[in-house]
Amino acid sequence: MKFIDARVIDNVSVAEEYYEMSFSWPSEETPLPGQFLTIRASDRTTPLLRRPFAFSRFDDGVARIIYQKRGDATAILAAKTRDEPLNVVGPLGNIFPVPRDSGRPVLVAGGVGIGPIFFFAEHIRAHNPLLVVGARTRGLLPAESCPHGIETVYATDDGSFGFHGTVVDVLKTTYSTDDNWILYLCGPEPMLKAGHEFATERRVPAWVSLEQTMGCAVGACMGCAVRVTGGLGYARVCTEGPVFDSREIVWT
Amino acid sequence: MDLSVKIGSTTFTNPLGVASGTFGYGSEYEKLIDLAEIGTLYTKAVTPRPRPGNSIPRIIETASGLLNSIGLANVGMVGFVEQKLPFLATLSCSVVVNVAGDDPDEYREVVEYLDRHDTVNTIKGYEVNISCPNVKCGGLALGTDPRQVEQLTRLLKKTTDKPIIMKLTPNVTDITVPARAAEAGGADAVSCINTLVGMVIDTSLKKTVLPAGTGGLSGPAVFPVALAMVYRTARAVTIPVIGLGGIMTADHAVQFLLAGASAVQVGTANFVDPNIAVDVLRGIEKYAETERLTTIQDFHTFIE
């Protein structure tokens, strides 16, 4: 965890309202899949707080995020151009655990959850992962940003591209009892919950990466809590997470 | 120039602190900033028993502000001594422990326990949280009743020789009433303000964003309110007043000092940029140098 004097390299739209930004990463501390960073979008007081974003890729001093333009802060980010300075703190949080046994990693991304899942897919390419990428509709799928050469199934809620249904529907139709899967999911909470339920029924291990509004993002403020089964009943997404064993989470 | 501040028996080397609840127990920010640069670290509130905190979501950003309902989530006094105090003991900045409880006896219990276990005198004072808007007992309910404020202050002064700083709530008609009560009870200082009670409603869901309904508002949105309260408090009591609420820049901090504060705390701004606290201290020093002010008292000579 450090302050990073980053500079924007590229900032392009990759799907409707989705952007991919690459920026310099002048630090020895190499980010890993699952980790995130925070950006102070502007020096003004609205938006006030730093915003967290998961790394979507890292190579040789260049970091990337994929983000959705959905509020003040991300609108400011989307307007940033090459060489603009970026006030970054990172890398923060824990990582997706690399599968240790022979099981097949199945990586499931929905909506803005694609970033960390793409990063992890590249990272464990040698484990022959299956990638399942879902969106409401075709226009929201950043197909060009998907890692190449990895078996990928696309799904859209409206059937406009790929499988007609949700990513968890894909899991249900693809899975056979002979399969030895390890699930990794990132996306909207209903998707994560459905993924957890699928994993519980089939007795498949599942790791989920959670999103929560953050205050400090370094473990000090207790603002980004989520309900968990152990301890005092809450964990901090920024510090104990963002990646959790799905069985640790109290799903509501 | 000597901008040190004496509160009770403790001399704080400079007027800057980082506010309780925004800086954890210090270690969270260790990798980002040089903790020796800040004057005083006010810890997250410590209660007798560990507290899980309030239901989620706990925070939401507002116009230039932050509304929170954390609910004093903390490790409890035993956990604090075992897990947090050893690290705090290694710091060169001053450490003030923020204390909270459900009733006066719980506050006393924490202070007594911490005093007993602080074998190397790491704790330089206690800031007494009688102003948290997000808990049912203690907190704000206590802080709005001057009789209880005075009694609690007196109880804690009897319990410890370390400085007692009563942290006041702005959620009263006249903040000078609890401020005077704290002074009458023997407080060594008061800090103000804690957060203002606020609310946000999600119009699509037609319900409050925070499950508790209301939360505490902080951040630059509250700064002018805090400044006026510090100004009034500094004229109502003779003990030092510590000003906080919405500091984002050195100029804000200097305004607090000119209004009569003897020290300041940076709070929500630590989330925005952990460098801000150190920048604020540098800015205060630069202002003092430029304006030829050599002590904190010099700041108090301009505004009646």
Question: What are the SSEs and their pairings?
Answer:
The complex is a heterodimer of chains A (252) and B (304).
Chain A: E1 2-15, E2 18-24, E3 36-40, E4 51-59, E5 62-68, H1 72-78, E6 85-92, E7 104-110, H2 114-123, E8 130-135, E9 152-156, E10 163-164, H3 167-174, E11 181-186, H4 189-202, E12 206-209, E13 225-227, E14 234-236, E15 243-245
Parallel strand pairs in A: 7-8, 7-11, 8-9, 9-10, 11-12
Antiparallel strand pairs in A: 1-2, 1-6, 2-5, 3-4, 3-6, 4-5, 12-15, 13-14
Chain B: E1 5-7, E2 10-12, E3 16-18, E4 40-42, E5 59-62, E6 65-68, H1 76-89, E7 94-99, H2 104-117, E8 123-129, H3 139-143, H4 146-159, E9 164-167, H5 176-184, E10 189-192, E11 196-199, E12 201-202, E13 207-208, E14 214-218, H6 223-236, E15 241-244, H7 250-258, E16 263-266, H8 269-272, H9 276-290, H10 296-299
Parallel strand pairs in B: 3-4, 3-16, 4-7, 7-8, 8-9, 9-10, 10-15, 15-16
Antiparallel strand pairs in B: 1-2, 5-6, 6-14, 11-14, 12-13
Instruction: Name the overall outline of chain B.
Output: globular
- Mean pLDDT across residues of chain A: 96
In terms of DSSP E residues, the strand content of chain A is 35-45%
Order of strands, main sheet of chain B, comes to 3-4-7-8-9-10-15-16
Structural class assignment of chain B: alpha/beta
**How many strands of chain A?**
15
Number of strands of chain B: 16
User: How far from one another are the termini of chain B?
Assistant: 23 Å
How much helical structure, as a percent, in the residues of chain B? 25-40%
SSE-based structural type of chain A: alpha/beta
- Count of DSSP-assigned helices of chain B: 10
Shape of chain A: globular
Output the radius of gyration of chain A.
18 Å
Note the main sheet of chain A: 7 strands, mixed
Strand order of the largest sheet of chain A: 10-9-8-7-11-12-15
User: In angstroms, what is the radius of gyration of chain B?
Assistant: 18 Å
Q: Write down the overall mean pLDDT of chain B.
A: 96
Structure description:
- The complex is a heterodimer of chains A (252) and B (304).
- With 252 residues, chain A is α/β, with parallel strands linked by helices.
- Chain A is built from 4 helices and 15 strands.
- Chain A has helices at residues 72-78, 114-123, 167-174, 189-202, and strands at residues 2-15, 18-24, 36-40, 51-59, 62-68, 85-92, 104-110, 130-135, 152-156, 163-164, 181-186, 206-209, 225-227, 234-236, 243-245.
- In chain A, helix 3 (167-174) runs parallel beside helix 4 (189-202).
- Chain A starts with a strand and ends in a 7-residue tail after the last strand.
- Chain B is of the alpha/beta class and 304 residues long.
- Chain B has 10 helices and 16 strands.
- Chain B has helices spanning 76-89, 104-117, 139-143, 146-159, 176-184, 223-236, 250-258, 269-272, 276-290, 296-299, and strands at residues 5-7, 10-12, 16-18, 40-42, 59-62, 65-68, 94-99, 123-129, 164-167, 189-192, 196-199, 201-202, 207-208, 214-218, 241-244, 263-266.
- In chain B, the strands form 4 sheets. An 8-stranded parallel beta barrel of chain B has the order 3-4-7-8-9-10-15-16, surrounded by 6 helices. A 4-stranded antiparallel sheet of chain B has the order 5-6-14-11, with no helix packed on it. A two-stranded antiparallel ribbon of chain B has the order 1-2.
- In chain B, a hairpin with a 2-residue loop joins strand 1 and strand 2 (10-12).
- In chain B, helix 2 (104-117) runs parallel beside helix 4, helix 4 (146-159) packs parallel to helix 5 and helix 7 (250-258) crosses helix 9 (276-290).
- Chain B is globular, with a radius of gyration of 18 Å.
